[in-house]
Write a structure and sequence with these properties.
It is found in: Membrane. The chain is α+β, with helices and mostly antiparallel strands. It contains 16 helices and 25 strands.
């Protein structure tokens, strides 16, 4: 009798699960074997309590379709759990799905502290850490229908558009954060897509997560009639049959032909807008030159031109008080713009005040670029501009304080580089890639940074990277892919061959700089100061030599003391070499780089031998810049900066002052 009493609940749960699994199809699950707990332990009791609370909440909460809870226990026994139902399912379907997921997850993931279960209609998860504080892109779970679609190329184009549209809809519709739609692929077939994020993400974080999910969905397998990718923070799915409800909020219906027509019209409007803005900016540059010649003070010109950003203006006295009147004791460093000082505002917030030096080669244009541009950019991997001050001949930018300083300060210092273990270096590479992807694709503006390097990567208290220094950045129009300049500005060793030689720049120029940065992070060696002791052809030649000799593992920074994953080092080296390919077409885009860094299942193209024009400068001439409009060009050997002057201007308006 006691045995029957013990088995009865299990038998009932088994039959209930079997009876409903036909309508709640299990999609995928993940159980982490790295952390486990013992049966009948305190953690086990807390887990059961959390799972029971989630089941109860799923039945009691009528509209939200999501809940997060915790055991509120000590850190060693704390359990955090959540469920999320697909945005279109009813309360009853949601409760039923969560109830069955609660039973199934403990059967599949026995005694593991981190577990995920994705059903078609809901997701259930638990962990021993609070997972609501960040976007999670691992683990990646994927599944595909093995049947192939006809007209695969056309189908993938339609799929790319529909998944992108569903993802954008999801990011725009809090708190449920889901979007879906369909497109007629042919007379017989209709494509249906669905995307959703966990509701504790911001709009930007949701978009970042779905970008990763859709990139994986489109690349892991092509030409399948159905597929899905699940990340802990979001998911995306497509089928050639309707798998979601038709009356849900946020639904998107459109035909491919209509979308193409709308897209063409939008491009036309964007082009017209770009031309208008270009002429306005050109006129502003002429006004600026006239006012400068007429004796109007530079700070008056700047104040007039950025007058629309009143909320970001700081009183100079406030900054002086915060920095102890720019005391040397508070000086953090000095760059091309001028010295940077640490300060503390009256509310206790720490700041970094970048003060334009009188002797700086930079001026109004770079200052305006940085204020007007960075103020509009919000991303966890970009340094945040708090404000500016233009007063009493002082020109100051006020940023958030980033306590660990610049990446180069740690990476290239033999005594400090040990603080950058492999996991930190990998995190930096991924974070910088995400920041660049945001600039290139996901921000309201398409931004080309043009000066990506280790000294322009700042590290916060948790060693998260933040891209800084946008004085040389350029904005591209929606349909613009490349631009040219007669004034080569930037830093020796990071510039792509097409930019250094011909003045052509694009998103692929930033990709090249990122590739150099990756190889520096892996090796711990600075490209622009590479010694002939390592390789007579510079860092790129050094890495390529080991790659071609199949001795890739030997290039890792010795300070790492073999405490790293050899496969990860080789993979990052592989990606870095792809980024520094001579031909821009052979370099990946940043969304591909992010995907390759986050998914080990992606096949990476084989790189070709790069041109080693960044060789050791010892006893070698500075590179020439073959441009008929360029009057002079030189390399400043003291700080590895390229500066150049010209009587011409680029694209009809003045370039920022060379650095």
């Amino acid at each position: 009798m006691r045995m029957i009493r013990f088995l009865l609940p299990f038998m009932l749960s088994f039959f209930i699960l079997k009876a409903t699994e036909s309508t709640i199809t299990m999609s995928s699950h993940y159980c982490s074997n790295s952390t486990t707990f013992s049966p009948n332990s305190t953690y086990h009791a807390n887990l059961n309590r959390v799972l029971d609370d989630l089941v109860r909440d799923a039945g009691a909460n009528p509209d939200n379709g999501f809940n997060f809870t915790s055991s509120k226990a000590s850190s060693s026994n704390a359990v955090y759990g959540s469920f999320m139902c697909r945005g279109d399912v009813s309360k009853k379907e949601c409760a039923n799905c969560v109830r069955n997921a609660r039973i199934r997850i403990t059967q599949l993931c026995q005694m593991t502290k981190v577990s995920f279960l994705w059903y078609d209609r809901c997701m259930l998860r638990y962990s021993d850490t609070n997972f609501t504080r960040k976007v999670e892109l691992k683990p990646l779970l994927a599944g595909y229908n093995e049947e192939n679609i006809d007209q695969s190329d056309k189908f993938m184009k339609v799929l790319n558009v529909t998944t992108d549209h569903a993802a954008r809809e999801a990011a725009r519709h809090p708190p449920r954060m889901y979007g879906h739609g369909h497109a007629e692929f042919s007379q017989e077939k209709t494509l249906y897509t669905f995307a959703q994020c966990v509701p504790y993400l911001s709009n930007n974080d949701c978009w970042e997560c779905l970008r990763n999910a859709t990139s994986s969905l489109l690349r892991i397998k092509e030409g399948k009639i159905g597929g899905r990718v699940f990340l802990p923070s979001c998911f995306v799915r497509f089928e050639i049959y309707p798998f979601y409800g038709s009356s849900s909020k946020g639904k998107v219906h459109f035909k491919w032909e209509i979308y193409a027509a709308v897209l063409a019209a939008a491009i036309g409007v964007a082009l017209l807008f770009y031309m208008i803005v270009w002429h306005i900016l050109r006129g502003r540059k002429r006004i600026l030159r006239r006012e400068s010649k007429s004796g109007i003070k530079e700070d008056q010109i700047v104040r007039r031109q950025i007058s629309g950003l009143h909320s970001l203006q700081f009183d100079l006295q406030t900054i002086e008080a915060a920095t102890d009147n720019f005391s040397n004791n508070n000086k953090l460093g000095e760059g091309g713009f001028g010295p940077v000082y640490k300060g503390t505002l009256p509310n206790g917030q720490e700041i970094a005040a970048k003060r334009l030096s009188r002797s700086s080669g930079q001026g109004v244009e770079e200052f305006k670029t940085e204020v007007e541009l960075v103020a509009k950019l919000q991303h966890r991997n970009l340094v945040r501009l708090l404000g500016f001050s233009v007063e009493r001949d002082e020109t100051i930018l006020v940023y958030e304080y980033v306590p660990n300083g610049s990446l180069d300060r740690l990476l290239f210092d033999p005594e400090l580089s040990g603080q950058l273990d492999w996991s930190t270096r990998y995190k930096v590479m991924v974070g910088v890639a995400r920041g660049l992807l945001y600039l290139h694709e996901d921000s309201r503006l398409r931004i080309i940074h043009r000066d990506l390097k280790a000294s322009n990567i700042l590290l916060d208290a948790d060693m998260n990277p933040k891209i800084s220094d946008f004085g040389l950045a350029r904005i591209f129009g929606n349909d613009q892919t490349q631009a040219s300049t007669n004034r080569i500005v930037g830093t020796y060793g990071y510039m792509s061959p097409e930019y250094l030689m011909f003045g052509h720049f694009s998103v692929k120029s930033d990709v090249f700089s990122y590739g150099v940065l990756m190889l520096e992070i892996i090796t711990g060696k600075k490209n622009s100061q590479f010694s002939a002791l390592y390789c007579d052809e510079g860092l790129l030649g050094y890495v390529w030599k080991h790659w071609s000799n199949r001795t890739s593992s030997e290039i890792a920074d010795p300070v790492l003391s073999n405490a790293y994953s050899v496969n990860e080092v080789i993979r990052c080296m592989h990606i870095g070499l792809l980024c520094v390919q001579d031909d821009t077409e052979d370099r990946p885009t940043m969304d591909s780089v992010v995907l390759m860094l986050n998914s080990e299942s992606i096949n990476i193209p084989v790189p070709q031998r790069p041109t080693f024009f960044f060789s050791s400068k010892k006893n070698k001439p500075a590179p020439s810049v073959p441009n008929s409009d360029l009057s002079t060009s030189k390399v400043d050997q003291s700080n590895n900066k390229i500066t150049s002057s010209s009587s011409a201007t680029d694209s009809g308006y003045a370039e920022p002052v060379p650095r």
